[in-house]
Amino acid sequence: MKFTMERATLLKAVAQAQSVVERRNTIPILANVLIEAEGDTVMFRATDLDIEVVDRADAKVERAGSTTVAAVTLNEIVRKLPDGALVTLTEDGNKGRLSIEAGRSNFSLATLPKDDFPVMASSDYETSFTCPAPVLRRLFDKSKFAISTEETRYYLNGVYMHVADSDGGKVLRCVATDGHRLARIDADIPEGASGMPGVIVPRKTVGELRKLLDDDEMQIEVSVSETKVRFATPNLTLTSKVIDGTFPDYSRVIPAGNTRKLEVDASEFAKAVDRVATVSSERSRAVKLSLDEDRLVLSVNAPDSGAATEELAVAYGDERLEIGFNAKYLLEIASQVDRENAVFMFNSSGDPTLMREGNDTSAVYVVMPMRV
């Protein structure tokens, strides 16, 4: 195998592959990337047995072939090469080495046989549809902060992507929750998606998927089965197992009877929460919200380190209310708001609070209060 590729193109492909590779694993081949050169295309394939990423890139292929080499090491070498360099990769099958040449730089890496590399079994997908990258990006970006990190509740360790009924008909919906906060994001249902089985997309897959979604013009082909989900662009395919579990009935958590309405500038609110939370060294320190007519006072009282208060002008016309929240959760939810105003709907100091962006109900957040 021998091919030449521009450094930036090679780096993009190798970086995508090496990010899937697990740093600590007991199977040496899983630390490698499978490189396959044929025609005028080179494919880079990496897997951790749960996720597989395949990146295709154009190259000048002099000799077709394939091999596997340490993904992290290859990425580090290519990253440190000068911009604009032409990089030639040559495999010597007899010596079990891959040489990397660029200008006066020359590297030689050990290889492992490509036959040992595990390729994820292809799946029959029940549903396939095409979705614009910005739509998928919004669905996952706005929900992923609420993914649980608690391994015992493994079925919450991802984003639940499914088709749901809403007031305007069926929608494509992403939901995530960790029991303390919840995010529910809706988008217009793409053509061909209505029969899709609901799947829980794992946290790591959500992180890898984000790298596919930066191009606003890109259309992403989404394929879903009961056990796998695949996201594909012309040059990149990300295939992942889904979490084998049942996502809880989240609709029971979303309050319907909250009538006390607070409207506040989302950016100013987030900055104020961040400022008052500074006096506390504890990440879970409660921020108290004291609401009176058109007035909000944020306060933190940390007996060991100090106290802080800040007043904000807001739109609030209901009876007086004091309620506490984890400062970190408030910040994360407030930072999701793209519009100017955040609308909070309260019931009492002990009930879940609902938050949305202005009058837009396609993004709904729920946060549990804390005792203060």
Question: How would you describe the overall organization of this protein?
Answer:
The structure is a single chain. With 372 residues, this protein is of the alpha+beta class. 16% of the residues lie in helices and 45% in strands. It has 6 helices and 26 strands. The strands form 3 sheets. A 13-stranded antiparallel sheet has the order 5-1-7-8-9-6-2-3-4-17-16-15-10. A hairpin with a 6-residue loop joins strand 24 (341-346) and strand 25. Helix 5 (266-277) runs antiparallel to helix 6 (327-334). The longest helix has 14 residues, at 7-20. The radius of gyration is 25 Å and the shape is elongated.
**Helix/strand structural class:** alpha+beta
- Please provide the count of β strands: 26
Task: Report the sheet-strand fraction.
Answer: 35-45%
Label the overall shape.
elongated
Largest sheet: 13 strands, antiparallel
Walk across the major sheet and give the strand order: 5-1-7-8-9-6-2-3-4-17-16-15-10
Query: Cα-atom Rg, whole angstroms?
Result: 25 Å
Keywords: Cytoplasm, DNA replication, DNA-binding, DNA-directed DNA polymerase, Nucleotidyltransferase, Transferase
Domain DNA polymerase III beta sliding clamp C-terminal: 252-371
Family: Belongs to the beta sliding clamp family.
Protein name: Beta sliding clamp
